Amino acid sequence: MIFTYQYIKHDIEKLQEFLDFLFYDVWLVAEGTFNFSKLDKNPDLKNICEKLELEDTKWGNFFNSRIAWIYDEFAKIKDNNFKLDLIDFYHNNNNIEALCSSKTLSPLTYSELEVKYPDLEKAINSFYSKLYGSESPFNLDAFGQLSKKLLQSHYKAFVDSNNDGICPFCGLNSIDGNIVSTKDAYDHFLPKSIYPFNSINFKNLSPMCYKCNSGNKSTNDPIEHIKGRKLAFYPYSIIHPKIEFGFKLLSKNVKALTPKDYILSINCLIKAEEIETWKRVFKIDIRYDELICNKHKAKEWYEDVYDYFENAKALVEIEDAEKYFEKVIKSTTRNPRSVKNTIKRKFLEECKANGLFKNNTM
Ligand SMILES: [Zn+2]
Q1: pLDDT tens across 108-149, in order?
Q2: Do both 194 and 334 map to the same domain?
Q3: What domain of life (predicted)?
Q4: Are residues 199 and 274 in the same domain?
Q5: In sequence order, what are the residues at sequence separation of 6 or more whose Cβ sits closer than 8 angstroms to the Cβ of residue 182?
Q6: CB neighbours (10 Å) of residue 91?
């Protein structure tokens, strides 16, 4: 990715805290049958569950019935070593940063859990797959209304702190800020359909532009645990290396470039595997080719230099467009996080190096 987000603390994290409590203090120590006394150590959650029981609503009943079902399935597990493994897996599946940056940590997928304990997988999947989105029980008043209130408030605070207005996953498209009423959707970086336990963990959730989220990443798994484990950039990493762009022309026909006419290189020597993961998941190469070639974008960039030249030529006798190159290059440095600016600058520098501003044949 082009840059990383700054993680923000927010009340929305209390939902994950409820789930942590359920896993460590309720399900892992399950014996016999579930009842609300098992929640005594967390009076807030116990009050909510008792309230939901009285209200007798669809989502409230769903929440209570699922935590009881998972409890019953945990109580059936007699293999204590597997329970110890589950502690590691729960911790790992929520340690998004470590899963992205190291292959020594093993996550757990639904398919792996299904092989070992199919009934437990069914119970956990039916619960966690519903926790985020329009069908979530967290949308109830008792939990603070996830979609209508908590997410709105989180988004506002998030874009206040992350105010570049650019999607860091592509560097191309904008991210809605607080002036407009629309909001970009949150993406589960590690897909919630593959990995249990992290569907409401906000270290695994971040706003992403529509094209990155729905059109390209979709449910692609950045760390590819099933296919052969890959490293990936962590979206909230505090340190993120600079990505180096290079542009080499193979043809001088800059007014009608096709992808065969140039080599666009995108490198980061110390994070070579992460770069490849990022390009694969977000289909970066083809999207940047589209930027350069579609609608004659490179042609427009080339003509920007001549626009300055033509304006100046009317006032004084100047015959060299190259003098106006620096003005256009300067304008591409105003927002260094915009990939459009970076590629435009690299392209124009390559045009100059090839002497394409020397003869004024526009
Ligand atoms: Zn994007």
Answers
A1: 999 999 999 999 999 999 999 999 999 999 999 999 999 999
A2: no
A3: Bacteria
A4: no
A5: 176
A6: 15
Domain count, the chain: 2
For ligand 1, the distance from its centroid to the CA atom of residue 315, given in whole angstroms, is 42
Q: Which of 194, 46, 168 is nearest to 108 (CA)?
A: 194
- Whole-number Å distance, alpha carbon 110 to ligand 1 midpoint, is 28
- Ligand 1 centroid to residue 279 C-alpha, Å: 12
Four-residue CA torsion sign, 316, 317, 321, 322? negative
Residues 208, 115 share a domain: yes
- Region 167-190 average pLDDT: 93
Whether residue 181 sits in one domain with residue 42: yes
User: Ligand 1 centroid to 215 CA: how many Å?
Assistant: 10
Q: For residue 171, how far is its CA from the centre of ligand 1 (angstroms)?
A: 6
Name the one residue in this structure whose structure tokens are 């006032």.
315
List the single range of 161-175, 231-245, 305-319, 345-359 with lowest mean pLDDT. 305-319
If you measure from the C-alpha of residue 207 to the centroid of ligand 1, how many angstroms do you get, rounded to a whole number? Answer: 9
Q: Is the pLDDT of residue 360 over 60?
A: no
Distance CA 222, CA 281 (A): 6
Query: Among residues 170, 257, 150, which one has the least CA distance to residue 211?
Result: 170
Q: 241 C-alpha to center of ligand 1: Å?
A: 19
**Amino acid occupying residue 233:** F
Q: 299 C-alpha vs ligand 1 centroid, how far in Å? A: 24
Question: Does any domain span residue 228?
Answer: no
CA angle 269, 191, 147 (to 5 degrees): 120
In a domain, 226, yes or no: no
H-type alpha helices, the chain: 13-21, 43-55, 58-76, 80-94, 96-101, 110-116, 118-128, 151-161, 210, 272-282, 284-293, 297-313, 325-331, 339-353
Q: Does 283 fall in a domain?
A: yes
